[in-house]
Amino acid sequence: MKIEEKTCRSGRSAVPITIPLLILQFVLCASVFGQANRKSVDLIVSGGTVVTMDAKRAIYEDGSVAVKGDSIVAVGPRNEIESRYKAQQTIDGKGKLVLPGFVNGHTHVPMTLFRGLHDDVALNDWLYKYIFPAEAKNVNEEFVRWGTRLAAAEQIRSGVTTFADMYYFEDAVAEETKAAGMRGVLGETFIDFPAPDNKSEAEMLAYTERFLKKWQGDPLIHAAPAPHSIYTCSKKTLQDAAALARKYHAPILIHVAEMKKERDDSEKQNGMSPVQYLEKVGVLGPDVVAAHCIFVDEADRKLLAERQVGCVHNPSSNMMLASGVSPVPEMRTAGIAVGLGTDGPAGSNNDLDLMEEMDLAAKLAKITKVDPLALNAKAVVEMATIDGARALHMEKEIGSIEVGKKADLVLIGLDKPNAVPMYDIYAQIAYALKGSDVETVVIGGRVVMRDRKLLTVKEEEVLQKAREYRKSVAASLGMP
Ligand SMILES: [Zn+2]
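Structure tokens for the assembled complex are given below, as produced in the milestone run.
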């Protein structure tokens, strides 16, 4: 059968074509037309197994993620995404896992420079005999900057894209975090003794208010007050810090029920548990991020859930300091958002590898309950991603690979002996893969590590400086 001539550009063709050819030509035309009409984006992570951690826990075996500016504009099967979008920059994800960036819900990043200073001691001794004196002698703004750079290098290398920090000179932490392209919930410490940066509560309040104002609306930095704990802060300090946070709609970072002594003292002094005391003084609320929550009974858990407090579990730290075991399965059952943290990195860990914390969180819960079902691989991957985001009250922004969320992505290579074979993706992530398997990291659409090369931190310089700090810190404490 002869039909009328047709061409792609509606020009003339002298050669009559048959129906199959016409169909082929139509498809080609549509494809060329489609290609021309693909929307421009800035970055496509193309191929790879995309583990979204969205509400359905969707996984795309051959998926792609399209990024415009600092946000995700599309995620789905590779063919579908790439027929709709073209990008200036492409990262090949083939043969890799593509995950949301990990959320380190609790740490003290400048303390990287105290890594290994005094280990194998009890928390109370570690704090009062070693760390508080070491901080008084060594911590200044310069120290905090170098410690933060070192921590940024370490965290990016193991896939952490967001971290919650509590320390001093937190404005310097914020500047260095932003320079490294990382996302941070950064808490300036309130404590009832002269701190390395602020010598009185009035100074702490003034500093923190300036800090909160300065970072309002920043896409990467969320500034916060961080009253250290109920055992180092008076009722007034706790309340002042909380009031300041609420004035600026900032989160409140605090250590809660992290030691048996803290719980016992609170029972004695306040006639109630640390959690109930924080409720009584008006601190608990949907903006609080409570680190540890080890000594929380059923009534405490109910209260934490009601007040929508986010909790952060730190298994390495709790084990290393023999503090106790946080009732993570019970907290999850109570409906509390429980994230994961490294704590430390000095004296209580001593590194910032959140993948290790996933592994340990699951195994610690299993051995404590003598039940291998107590906390499974999928649960701990949730804790490192979407539940970590919920614990920081940032689940609308980060924690999963979904349209509209920030483009915080981690690519993990699977072409390694410890990565094959793979039967269960979550089990592989939690129990087999390591932080050092992370190859490429994107934060807010910016590639901060590509094929294990850091792009935002001068790593050699930072390592050298850390070695120099070892000498001056040791000398300040009369150590060899
Ligand atoms: Zn801590």
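The longest strand covers residues 39-46. The two ends are 95 Å apart (CA to CA). Further analysis is deferred to the final report.
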